[in-house]
Amino acid sequence: MSKIIKPLPLKSGDRLGIITLSSPIANASKETIQRAYDYLKNKGFEITEAANCYKIVDQAAGTIQERVNSLHDFFADPNITGILNFWGGFNTHQILEYLDYELIQKNPKPLIGFSDTTSLQIALFTKTGLITFSGPAGITFGKPTVPDYT
User: Which of 46, 57, 100, 105 could cross-link with 128 by S-S, CB 3.0 to 4.6 Å?
Assistant: First the structure.
């Protein structure tokens, strides 16, 4: 592992990249997705969806390469200041061997998610030293009621 990298904290006005590395976002209702985005926008964030969010290949949000490309695109894009997984789920482990860890290390930013995202978070910390965050996924903010502490 390299030295520990602490990404800059998120603040109002930042652009969040919404990514789906396991299940497609379309598994949620349009109302749930809109509620999640409205919640985040009301907190001051701008939202950009990854290119693969609505793709469906078997049970995943696109092919392995499409999911890898989306993650790389967000890390490389200087306008994206944080990455928020929309789901937990499964299949994220499939992308680990294809990641450009040097690109990620050179462009650190907060990555937030839970459940299946854990394999990615462990890989990123191990290979790059990037601290990531186990926390609410995008779907959390699409619930009819979001606890204040979230």
Answer: 105
